[in-house]
Amino acid sequence: QDTLIVWSEAENYDLALSFQEKAGCDEIWEKICQVQGKDPSVEVTQDLIESEEEHIEEMPETSPLIDLPTCELNKLEEIADLVTSVLSSPIRREKLALALENEGYIKKLLQLFQVCENLENTEGLHHLYEIIRGILFLNKATLFEVMFSDECIMDVVGCLEYDPSLAQPKRHREFLTKTAKFKEVIPITDSELRQKIHQTYRVQYIQDIILPTPSVFEENFLSTLTSFIFFNKVEIVSMLQMNPNLIILFQGWTSPNVSCYVNILGGMDDLQVRSAATDIFSYLVEFSPSMVREFVMQEAQQSDDDILLINVVIEQMICDTDPELGGAVQLMGLLRTLIDPENMLATANKTEKSEFLNFFYNHCMHVLTAPLLANTSEDKCEKDAVVGSTKSNTICPDNYQTAQLLALILELLTFCVEHHTYHIKNYIMNKDLLRRVLVLMNSKHTFLALCALRFMRRIIGLKDEFYNRYITKGNLFEPVINALLDNGTRYNLLNSAVIELFEFIRVEDIKSLIAHIVENFYNALESIEYVQTFKGLKTKYEQEKDRQNQKLNSVPSILRSNRFRRDARALEEDEEMWFNEDEEEEGEAVVPPVEKSKQEDDFPDSYEKFMETKKAKESEDKENLPKRTSAGGFKFTFSHSASAANGANGANSKSVAAQTSPASSNGSSSKNATLTTAVTATKGSLVGLVDYPDDEDDDEEEETSPRKRPRLGS
């Protein structure tokens, strides 16, 4: 049966295999037939029960093979058993449907329903529920025409209210007749059209609300019902096209103008109008994203950035007042569709991808990232002293709704990293965006910290040496390792996600990152022994050093003499020049730096208004925010400047000194054991102090640190 293979193994024991695609179903069917020695072109290979087979041979095809019981109250249980029993047999379903149609049986059943309801015959009503539900599962359009007629449909809904599994019947008829209201934008005078609209709404209600979700064995039983609804809608649209009043209404909504209307409506204060504009915009994007992209690119030639359609959509997403950001999630999905290169067209004369992405990064990206940059700037974050350190640690003062918004923005940026190659790469480098994102690793909301980590994971997953240089020169692993050590011995999602990041680097053998991690952070990580990831990184690092030494030893000594060595500073200068150059990708030209249409802190007015409404709440959060202290592990101070990421301090020489061994991960360190590591770099690019607190201070810290959560068993 298309994507189903069904069979019987006993009188009342039916089984089925369900497949996602017909091709897979056909393949397994052929193998079954091969084992059985049957022809796979035949739809039914199972031998029929002897009595049924003889019965079929004795009677002509035009004769109904099922005798229906008389339609009486005392026969309802028998009728229900009959309808239920035929559903497993395609042949018996066909014969029952034919019998029901020929004898006008459905209308007789619905008359019994009215009798049972008047008599409050609960048992009979439960039987009628099973009967009507079974008739729907016969999947016959001719029966649907009878059941969904004006005369019968409300009684059908009434039968389906009396589900035996429910303590009380539902009130579906009351909803359809009293609660649901028919709204007309323009008067519809055609009675046939009105009747078809009412019927379609009620049938859709039966399918979506009343009937339970079909199981895998029933998924094809209602395919005809779906088709019935679809063709009803086609008929409604065809009839509407013949309505002259409706044609006049839509004359102004031509392709060039419709996006203008959406733009105007989306900027209004009325929530209902904005909601309607969002719905219209979603239909436009689903119907033709290319049409919307073409409009916004033309709009950019005549309008300021603030009133561009996409920027209005982004600002509506940012300013969503719903605590769960339901509207923002919907708008984010639409933006994702618009910037997805997979649905962009490429013709001989123009490439939609390059044109639109250039437009988006020059005119819209600064609006999208405004909340992220605003909430990770130094003046927006508070500084708390870290115990045992002369430096301060940045903690993002984000409330829950802001954290949700930032998570949505990060999700979209992560999508850009995966699909936009050099456009997003240039933006990340110019804005030092990854450093700003990693500030959110300190968020008190774990889901936001995971979003920041996921953004970095996607960048590393590209295995792009340009990104790798940016990460190592900016020392951007530091906040990730701090988060891992802050997390302590808790085995949670954050712990697993960070370890997976380093495991990916180890498995993929990304040499530049391995060397950076081992040389700068191994002393902090070697105590983590419940996974072998970090020891594996050290092994990879040492193996690579051995290979390099062997290569060096194989070079003739004259080439290794000082006369033929270049000055170390010259080598580093060459590296800096390479790092600062735009990397060209095969078949793609590197776009120029993103135009800075506004100063970084000159964000859209709508966002500023939105943020002002939260000031009172944020001030309360700041007063109640627990003070961050030493988190029971290595602690580095994240003091790299943004310029370091762009190679400003590329010539800095580094030295690492470590004393004593860190405590093992199971907490078996001796009392008052401390470890201090100084990581210094000339020109002040990195200075850090780390220490382990006494074990007896752990309980106190557990209460005060905002990043601490209840410890799980090892």
Q: What does this entry look like structurally?
A:
There is one protein chain. This protein has 714 residues and is mainly α. Among the domains are: 168 residues, no CATH class; 168 residues; 87 residues, no CATH class. The protein is built from 35 helices and six strands. Strands 1-2 form a two-stranded antiparallel sheet. β3 and β4 form a beta hairpin. α15 packs across α18. The protein starts with a strand and ends in a 10-residue tail after the last helix. Belongs to the SMEK family. This is Serine/threonine-protein phosphatase 4 regulatory subunit 3B. It comes from Cathartes aura. GO terms for molecular function: protein phosphatase activator activity. One of its GO terms (cellular component) is protein phosphatase 4 complex.
Radius of gyration: 35 Å
Q: Work out the helix count.
A: 35
Strand sequence of the main sheet, in spatial order?
1-2
Structural class, judged by helices and strands? mainly alpha
Taken from the alpha-carbon principal axes, the silhouette is extended
Mean pLDDT: 75
The biggest sheet amounts to: 2 strands, antiparallel
Number of strands: 6
The residue ranges in which pLDDT falls below 50 over 5 or more consecutive positions are: 48-64, 383-393, 582-604, 620-635, 637-714
Portion of residues in beta strands equals under 5%
Helical residue percent band: 55-70%
What is the straight-line distance between the termini?
Answer: 51 Å
Multimeric status of the protein: single chain
Domain PP4R3 EVH1-like: 1-36
Domain Serine/threonine-protein phosphatase 4 regulatory subunit 3-like central: 78-247, 261-543
Protein name: Serine/threonine-protein phosphatase 4 regulatory subunit 3B
GO molecular function: protein phosphatase activator activity
